Recover the amino acids of this structure.
């Protein structure tokens, strides 16, 4: 259960970072270019963190895949 909460929390942070970058891009004021790049870099970092978290959780057996059975 804790893994699911952590994954959802990281996903929410990723979405907020993405919309923060969009907002600073649309406002188009002086100095916002650096903020846009920073927010997008945070999003990439949190996405990488999410992949690592999912990989560790899978390796430790905390989560298991449940795809379609053919």
């Amino acid at each position: 259960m804790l893994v699911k909460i952590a994954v959802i929390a990281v996903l929410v942070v990723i979405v907020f970072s993405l919309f923060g970058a969009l907002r600073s891009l649309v406002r188009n004021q002086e100095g916002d270019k650096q903020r846009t790049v920073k927010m997008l870099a945070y999003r990439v970092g949190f996405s990488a963190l999410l992949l690592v978290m999912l990989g560790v959780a899978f390796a430790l057996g905390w989560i298991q895949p449940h795809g379609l059975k053919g």
